[in-house]
Amino acid sequence: xxxxxxxxxxxEKSISQNELAKLIGLARxxxxxxxxxxxxxxxxxxxxxxxxxxxxxxxxxxxTNTKKYKNNQKEIDSQKCGTxxxxxxKNNHITQIKIxxxxxxxxxxxxxxxHGKSLIGTPFLYMVCQQYNISADYLLGKIDYIPNFxxxxxxxxxx
Length: 159
What we know:
Blueprint: H1 6-12, H2 17-24, H3 28-35, H4 43-53, H5 57-60, H6 78-91, H7 96-103, H8 107-114, H9 122-132, H10 136-139
């Protein structure tokens, strides 16, 4: 189970679940399900919280201990995301069918992600980032460079 940092960030900011839920346009109970990881947070809300806390999506998802990246964009770019998913797949010499099977989705769904017609789902993004040791922020088009992911969660925290 991934270690999403939603609760940690909310407590650091001294904001209640209710206040935070209102801020992003959700019911408190819905937000709570994301925070306790009963439901996976959609990318739209993950991005909103990343911008609100001024931290990377990678940090929230527990992919890195680096809180912020330089030249971070506020919006997710679905076209860049599609292009980068395709590049990642091709650079790793794998077929759409192979990556779709890894994610337990069908190949046409993966193709839709690669063409930027729909954003990849948060759980699939997380799995791809973990498997290929790559930044969610990069894949989502929020940054235009691939950060060094050699340090993982078990290393000391960076600010």
